[in-house]
């Protein structure tokens, strides 16, 4: 018996049984839009089924052309769609998991010219103004949902999930934020919920009783004129009556300006809203958002707050999450750090979804770690994430690997990231790699700086140079003064004054600014109540505020900060699509002054002299923190033409500092190790 008894308990639905309480939530991978990608999609889902997940929900498939998220998006409206989907359902069923196809009509969120909605009001996140659906169009759309579910059944799915949250079409009917109709589809909640209720009834009539209908309901809209909890409960009860088998939950519309999934959102932040709805219905309910580790998931179930837990990104990060939990190997889980960099940021750029910490995600047929038939002696120099990725993959394939790290610990740049407020999850990646280094038998030599002679003398035939980066120094008059610090010094705890200029507004400039806004602290997650106050989220699970929003309360920052860059583009424009706005909002709320088009002139005892808008200006600051990017450390690499005994390879920041990026570093390490 493991300590995760609730998580691993089967869920009996009468006509079928789900083998445990873990749902892999819907995540659009980009593979579902083209029939020729379905073998890859099947392999992606099969790996998760093999990993033990109870129930999988596919990425969103539209019931018709108007519902496309993007031009020619995945659609199911003909029997010709059946064979490709059969590949997916067959692959999942082989391993005893169940799978639902998500039906998603994007409504006004569609990034295409045929968009429709309850009312012709443009969304802030798509340039296309929707056409208002007429009574006739509404009825035919309901019929399209039913037909889509019927075809899904023929393709072997165990059921469908109707996407009714995150601000898509159904939400656009459910909430007055968009729905301004005066006919029987608009007005009070009884009318606004008519559209989803009729969809459920039409599907149930078509597919019969022995087919799962899951409905993903928005529990907290987080937009103005959003529903109250009383309205959410009315809808939940009506959906149950109409024939829903499972109620899934969604938090926040995509256009909401409150973060709901990024790494700074506390774990399980929204589960109390799920617990509230659970009291009013008798069908099983699924908790979602920022659940990434078994302890959190088990606690939700053990305390009766939900019947199942949904994770999408954590199962991209580790396909074997459930099996590792079931066999008491939780320390081996590759934890999703909620960075969004390779999943949602890719999805929003129409790129195939993958995972920063697991580059195999979405590439299961292409990045394969086969056992080697010719074991080699491999030296990996540098214990950052690039080096650890290369070392662990190479060792897992059967090579004899030694990892040399010059400092007293592995982790590299992640050791800086994990102390930034809201980035505490990054320590999980270091923990994961440390456990993998041990399990795969890598010989780790800390406090060991090596040169080529030593490596070759020890007989290494392959040397992977992952020596990383050093922070770029500022080269202006006075920049050697003691009040000029690198970001590395600051994040390691150097003393910083009350007034600060941060030079460089890349990811690290933003991180350092956030770090300096708060008093010195132990790196630990922000308490939920404080986070709710800061972002204006109503903490009352039975909230009466519209969309669950309240005026935010921002604590005074402990420092006055200038964030500076030379470029004239808006600051933070290069940050991740789905997380950059959160960082920009945080700094703005805390009064950080952001200046662009700045030239740095000199550091004096008075502060930092800059030229801005054609004028010399003195910023009277006590400390200047340099976040001006990095330079590669690659002394170990042989020069071109230089003869060596071993083969040398270079990866990560050592290879290219200009785009120092953990996603590329981990991927390069894994890809190289898969080839050796
Ligand atoms: P970066 O993104 O390259 O930003 C460094 C900034 O410093 C540049 O935007 C540049 O802006 C400025 N700069 C460059 N050379 C300079 C010089 N000689 N003097 C003064 N300013 C100079 O690098 P980073 O912030 O160190 O981040 C490194 C990588 O870490 C990023 O690429 C990102 O992938 C990752 N990261 C991301 C996040 C996130 O998304 N939240 C957080 C942390 C790290 P100007 O030339 O315009 O001044
Ligand atoms: Fe999680 Fe980041 Fe991987 Fe996305 S890319 S699944 S957020 S770790």
UniProtKB/TrEMBL annotation:
InterPro entries given for it? Aldolase_TIM (IPR013785), FAD/NAD-bd_sf (IPR036188), FAD/NAD-binding_dom (IPR023753), NADH:flavin_oxidoreductase (IPR051793), OxRdtase_FMN_N (IPR001155)
The NADH:flavin oxidoreductase/NADH oxidase N-terminal domain sits at 7-331
* CDD domains, alphabetized: DCR_FMN (cd02930)
State its cofactor. Answer: FMN; [4Fe-4S] cluster
* Pfam families registered for this protein in UniProt: Oxidored_FMN, Pyr_redox_2
UniProt keyword list:
Flavoprotein, FMN, Iron, Iron-sulfur, Metal-binding, Oxidoreductase
Q: Where is the FAD/NAD(P)-binding domain?
A: 377-640
Keyword Oxidoreductase assigned = yes
What SUPFAM superfamilies does the record point to?
Answer: FAD/NAD(P)-binding domain, FMN-linked oxidoreductases, Nucleotide-binding domain
What is the similarity comment for this entry? In the N-terminal section; belongs to the NADH:flavin oxidoreductase/NADH oxidase family.
Protein's UniProt name: 2,4-dienoyl-CoA reductase
* Biological source species: Acinetobacter calcoaceticus DSM 30006 = CIP 81.8
